[in-house]
């Protein structure tokens, strides 16, 4: 620096004997973000269930459309390796003759 500049110490910085770090507080951060994640997950699950408009049973049709149920079509997927054929409009096992 220049010789003409005047420098004086206003307050001397003295460190503490064992200073604790101000940030990050790991335990607090983990607790807060765990609670945040749980609340977000529960809210998302609730929202997805609320927006689900699929028909699950006959009562959903009766209540939603206000129509009576006239019949029921049963269909099961064939097991692995099981052949399926249509006989007189009915799906059944393949029987060899």
TrEMBL record:
Biological source species: Bacillus sonorensis
UniProt cross-references to PANTHER family, sorted A to Z: FERRIC ENTEROBACTIN TRANSPORT PROTEIN FEPE, TYROSINE-PROTEIN KINASE
InterPro entries: Bact_polysacc_biosynth/exp
Protein keywords: Membrane, Transmembrane, Transmembrane helix
Transmembrane portions of the chain: 27-48
Name of the featured protein: Capsular polysaccharide biosynthesis protein YwqC
Upper classification of the organism: Bacteria, Bacillati, Bacillota, Bacilli, Bacillales
Domain of life, per lineage: Bacteria
